[in-house]
Amino acid sequence: MFNVANNRRNSIANSSTHRSRQKKLTTKSKFGLILAAVFVVIVAISVVVIARLNPPLPPLHINLQQPILDEPTATVEQAQKWARSRNATETFVELAPIYWSLAPNYGINPVVAYAQAGLETNYGRFGGVVDATYCNPCGLKTTQGGDDSDPQAHQRFPDWTTGITAHLEHLALYAGAKGYPLENPLDPRHFPRLLGTARTVGEIGENWASSDYYANLLAELIDRMEVQHVPGQTAYPRSSTLVE
């Protein structure tokens, strides 16, 4: 009898322990489900916030008729965001404010000039015979010129402001800006015969680089810069010559 009673007590105790464990497991399961639900909500909110801050870019437009002489078609903040999206060096990113400060003095759309600088310098990473110490944002050669593979054939400027000024003078000459050619330019290749030979992005490809591929790539870079979304900022109007 004693053994039977003892067994019953053990059975009751084991049952109580089992129920207690089940209760703890149920509590843990509920807590785990709550944590999982909270995590899902946080992820969903994060996705929405990121989507609003970085909405998908619109379809690509290649506008070869975009003029060089024009009002800015993007802000400097858009330009810097675009540069970072291309894995540009911080030095190149910091050149954007210089372009936006100087380009209007020449009647040039800084978007065109900065995009070309990105193309010519590989977004500040360079990689050819010219490096960042040249402060040459567009591959300008010396007045005498020379072979593309000759470092001495390329102009070395004392600082980036001087190099960018020379770039803008060269573009303004190509675009046929009033008052050009200049008498004492910083541009070492300021030849009168270039006046008005490239008024649009497409003509830059025909005359600056003699390559249709160059013009199309430059137009693509310009377009991607113009459509960058900067929170709290209204984008500039794009060129009225935009074509699909």
Write the layout of secondary structure elements.
Elements: H1 2-53, H2 76-85, H3 90-93, H4 96-102, H5 110-121, H6 160-175, H7 201-207, H8 212-226
Helix pairs in contact: 4-5, 5-8, 7-8
Report on this structure.
By secondary structure, the chain is mainly α. The chain has 2 domains: 1-53; 76-226, Lysozyme (Orthogonal Bundle). Helices cover 50% and strands 0% of the residues. The chain contains 8 helices and no strands. The protein has helices at residues 2-53, 76-85, 90-93, 96-102, 110-121, 160-175, 201-207, 212-226. Helix 5 crosses helix 8. The longest helix has 52 residues, at 2-53. Mean pLDDT is 84; it is low at 43-51 and 240-244.
**How does the overall form come out from the CA principal axes?**
globular
Report the portion of residues in β strands: under 5%
In the CATH scheme, what's the topology name of the largest domain?
Lysozyme
| Main sheet makeup | none
The helix/strand series, from N terminus to C terminus, equals HHHHHHHH
Unreliable runs:
43-51, 240-244
What is the number of beta strands? 0
Our Rg estimate from Cα atoms comes to 31 Å
What is the share of helical residues? 40-55%
Determine the mean pLDDT.
84
Total number of helices: 8
Distance between the termini: 97 Å
User: How many discrete domains?
Assistant: 2
CATH second-level architecture of the largest domain:
Orthogonal Bundle
Structural class: mainly alpha
What CATH first level of the largest domain would be assigned?
Answer: Mainly Alpha
